[in-house]
Amino acid sequence: MSLTSYLAAPPRDLKKIIRWGREGVNRQEDGSSFASRARLGFGVAENGQLHPLNRRARISIYAAVFLAFLDNFVLLPVIAPRAAELGGGSVGVGAAVAAYSFANLIFNLLGGFLADRFGRRRIVVWALVASPLAIGSYAWADSIGWFLTARLFHGATGGVLATSLLAMLGDASPQGARGQVLGQAGAIIGLTALLGPVAMAVIIMAAGLPGVFLGLAAILALGLIPVVPCLPDTLKASPKIRLGQGWGKLLAEPEIRTALIAIFGLEAAVGIVAGFLRTVVTGRELGPVAVTTQSGLLFSLFGAVAIAVMLSPWAGRVDRQGPRGPCMAGLLSVGAALALLGSGQGSLAWVAMLFYGAGYGLIFPAAAGTIAIATGREDRGRGNGLLNFFFDLGLVLGPVVAGVFAYASSVNPFLTGMAFVGLAVGLMLWAVRK
Questions:
Q1: Nearest CA to 253 among 20, 8, 7, 10?
Q2: How is residue 51 annotated by DSSP?
Q3: Residue range 227-271, pLDDT digits in tens
Q4: List of residues 6+ apart from 136 with CB closer than 8 A
Q5: Half-sphere exposure (CA, 13 Å, Cβ side) for 164?
Q6: Which of 53, 149, 289, 351 shows the smallest number of beta carbons within 10 Å?
Q7: Angle CA(119)–CA(372)–CA(369) in degrees, nearest 5?
């Protein structure tokens, strides 16, 4: 199948696509209903009827998304310096950085199961409450061993929270606008990425490096007070669900496979750009302060473009056309960004970050929206567990593989990133034919 015919073809197995998001409604739908843009507002489906959520519940879900992702962006720049202060050495510092993602990988899947088994609200609230406790535990760690333990605890709570919260968003979002709702959530996550370093700098100036952990924990704990009571219960407990149940059924869906492959390729590229962008800026013979400043500005440009795309009507294309078009266009855009960065010309880095942001903005709502559309409420937690697992897997493998090839054979890391994107494109073409 050629790339052109792949993009132009209607979604595979249209009858399956048409029933996306019906959530147990026993009625037939035709292709026009899939293409419709129903603006029903947030709500919870029960017995085929959508019960709209009140304004406080809608705001609380988005506020929970903000709180859930703020901590990682605040703490990311201070984890390595704190691990070094505790005598970690290069191995200890590397382990401290990687421990969060390692715990995330495991608890993404477990969190998806828990959200389906014990109900959305119960798991979301548990993880939200555990998050400031995990962050506060960093401050009490007086050795690298205890610091790594705190890091694993934080990664576990983060994996459960991200998965269960995205499942709650999928439950509450209306048919025909799930891509748009998940795009708005993605924009909120992008906002935390822009505000996180600013919050970190303010706390450090006020309380020093150790104070970042207690200060952030206090901010999150206070933020939870008005949020938790308003969170809706979008799925009750389902005692019949077992841990190993339903995963194969989800992976058998071509559209879900497309979303997982796309998010893996995207995040592998994200990890490589995050790890090696400084090499492009450094090549312009700037001082260390200028390198840090320009890298920050480039990432800010990326974040602003990604947010703009996720808030645009493009985020809703997945509801009308399925995931393959937005995901393929996004991967091609990310590939173009990597090619420009791989050229080594610092002046092209600004153009590259435009392509990079556009690609991210296309893929995230399409992939997350696909999970919300292609799953029922009873297995949406596990669907989001798979999404977050492949998200973190790409984020971990991308920079590691690029670093190994760069060290062993001087391969340009951005060329390795292009290989990851090319692999994702090839797998997407394969997945739709299976």
A1: 20
A2: E
A3: 999 999 888 888 788 887 889 999 999 999 999 999 999 999 998
A4: 213, 214, 217
A5: 33
A6: 289
A7: 140
Q: What is the pLDDT of residues 169-180, one digit of tens each?
A: 999 888 888 899
Nearest to 261 by CA among 398, 391, 400: 391
* Contact between 68 and 104 (Cβ < 8 Å): no
Q: In the chain, what are the domains?
A: 14-21+55-431 (1.20.1250.20)
Coil vs helix vs strand at 220: helix
Q: Could you tell me which residues come within 8 angstroms of residue 416 by beta carbon, excluding any fewer than 6 positions away?
A: 272, 398, 401, 402, 405, 406
- CA-to-CA separations, 365 to 116, 250, 311, 413, 418, in angstroms, rounded: 22, 19, 10, 27, 22
pLDDT recorded at residue 212: 86
d(CA 283, CA 4): 38
Contact 364, 169 (CB under 8 A): no
- How distant, in Å, are the alpha carbons of 171, 304, 306, 345, 348 from that of 339? 38, 21, 19, 11, 10
* pTM attached to this predicted model: 0.84
